[in-house]
């Protein structure tokens, strides 16, 4: 009986024919393109949702800037305070937000009085803090709040908070600069960007100047004002009351320092001669603001000091009407 023998394989191998890779490679490239496209679309949708979806809706007609001046009706004449109010109101009415092109929005003004707030026996200068807090509530959709104390005048109606300060803040800010001159070990942050800035102040020869400052509305601003107005600081009897309290919290609270910038004094806070400022901080024609710092002390007269500049700002404002 014969058994079938397995057939022997040829000793000559078949020629190797590589599998075609064209189709899989094409598929992979398409998959990669689709994935990249989906990622780009997701990024775009995420960005749009955060810019438009989660942002607060600001009602039409909302003033972009609110100017706050606290009036001391107990120690100043009605005529003088009316001049201060007219100065702010005339400036506010002349301002048009050019960034909105066809939508012209005036600034708003707010004139509370020192007696409107319970200061628990603290000096009346403390009233600026609850006044700004009050303005945040009264104008809940406005973005910027400029506190400008009563013994001062806006001198240049051509200058705006946006174009003269906010749009230029990164170039104006004094970086790595002592908070309290001349050699405080606590210094301003060197790398802040404009969107990170919530408080804009100046300083004179003695320290931070709280008579003219700009604050951005938000949760941080409420925290800052509440911290500044803490009963402990009001009762501590600082030599310069709220001014020294401000310097204290800026130096001891990094959360506050991290949102603050100091800009050159004359940008929003030029002084009349006789105030605590060197030549770089003294008022010159064309400056935004002049302040009569200390005019209520030492035999000086705020009304007389303001009189010549009152005539000047009226003439400049009328010329631009």
Order of strands across the widest beta sheet? 2-1-3-6-5-7
Rg, Cα atoms, Å: 32 Å
- The CATH architecture can be named as Alpha-Beta Complex
What is the chain-wise order of helices and strands? HEHEHEEHHEEHHHHEEEH
CATH level-3 fold name:
Spore Coat Polysaccharide Biosynthesis Protein SpsA, Chain A
**Poorly predicted parts:** 1-11, 45-54, 96-104
Provide the β-strand percentage band. 5-15%
Total domain count: 1
Could you state the CATH homologous superfamily? Spore Coat Polysaccharide Biosynthesis Protein SpsA, Chain A
Distance between the termini: 128 Å
- SSE class: alpha/beta
Mean pLDDT: 85
Main beta sheet: strand number and arrangement? 6 strands, mixed
Keywords: Glycosyltransferase, Transferase
GO molecular function, one term: alpha-1,6-mannosyltransferase activity
Pfam family, one: Glyco_transf_34
Family: Belongs to the glycosyltransferase 34 family.
Description:
The protein is an alpha/beta fold. It has one domain (66-319): Spore Coat Polysaccharide Biosynthesis Protein SpsA, Chain A, CATH 3.90.550. Helix content is 36%, strand content 12%. The protein has helices at residues 22-53, 78-94, 128-138, 161-164, 169-172, 219-228, 231-235, 241-252, 254-257, 302-319, and strands at 65-68, 108-110, 144-148, 152-154, 199-203, 208-216, 260-262, 270-271, 289-291. α2 links the parallel β1 and β2. The longest helix is centred in the N-terminal third of the chain and has 32 residues, at 22-53. 29% of the residues are buried. Mean pLDDT is 85; it is low at 1-11, 45-54 and 96-104.
